[in-house]
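G.,

No rush on this.
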Amino acid sequence: MGSKRQAGVLPFRWHNGQLEVLLVTSRTVGRWVIPKGNVGKKTAQEAASKEAFEEAGLRGRIDPEPLGCYLHGRPGDQRWVDVYLMEVTEELPEWPEQAERQRQWMPLAKAQQQVYEDGLRALLARLPAELERRTSGRALGPVASRALVIGLLLLALALAFGGTYYLARLLQKPEVRQRLKQLEQQDPTSSLQYLQRFPQLT
């Protein structure tokens, strides 16, 4: 069994509110597959992006976290393919392997029926939940996420010690707001420790 791993890309888009993925045909038997190829001296993400362009004429954002992997190839010559998600931003009318492959956008359910490998089918089944997880993790962004944590800590502190009115007045002070802004860039819990210095809250 071959030991070299390959990198593959799963292109996706939202079309009329429906999740779609793009598959291409293999050059040998014309099966529906995802763009993939050897990594070589590139990073896995670079290789995935390259295959998306060469095999499907796509450009987009590659998520650095792999969706997963699956086993591809014939018995005795199988390789693991690490699959990366690509949110497509551009679909080129011409591409290097245009004469050798077909490409087609299709609903996720249809794509699961079309692919040959069980491992790839399983990855397709995971896609909606994985997109939801990754999107919710990026929705607020790191700064907003810190602010949310701090807000929850402040609310818990006020409720625990009955200092809601004083806390509101305290947060109106420019020096307090400035200090909290500095602390939130470091560690949200340090903001709580800072506020606990005020006796009216504790």
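When you get to it, here's the other one too:
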Amino acid sequence: MTGIAQGQSAGSGAFRSVYAAKDVSLDTNPRSPFWRGAAPVYAEMDTQGKIIPGYRTEVRSRWTKGSLYLLYTCPYEELYLNPSPVTTAETNELWNWDVAEIFIGSDFKNIRRYKEFEVSPQAEWVDLDINLDLPDHTVGWTWNSGFEVAARIDRKTKIWYAAMRIPFAAIDQRTPAAGTIFRANLFRSQGPPDRHKSITWKPPMTAAFHTPERFGQLELVMKK
């Protein structure tokens, strides 16, 4: 598309988040000046690495001195939505419905510790503090990152869009700077149970998204 940044290499392990000088209101338009400044990566494979036709999900990222931004462009065939959406508080087990997700961690020594952020087409959200070594994984469900979301559904084109703004303080103790690298993976859950699609950026090669050994990297950069 004319004027849209070209995608990052599909073979690259790194997803580059491009610096922005100031924070902005969340925007779900990939053609806006803010998002056009970032080159996308694509989540389009199932958990075993096979391309899922028709579900190529574009993800862009920007960063500021305080926040990490993500925009998901999500084509769909059919929506599977929570019939009673709540956007004023988090929705635990949101992953049972259509969602876009990022798993992101700053600890390269203990890769089983990271954060999970999800947003639905209806702007529902949930954030989780993941520690895979704990016997009770619900311990991190009450964690609150303070992240923000926005979403919209374009039923004519059958694409839904979602944006996140995540405070850096929620994912790292370091001051964000160009060259900082995080472990990360990008996912979507789409469609009803009998026709469900698990869409990934870096395929976990297992049925579980929570396979940190298969994460890629998100790098903060100054320019695309």
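Residues 1-5 have pLDDT under 50 and may be disordered. The chain has one domain: 14-221.

Enjoy the weekend,
O.
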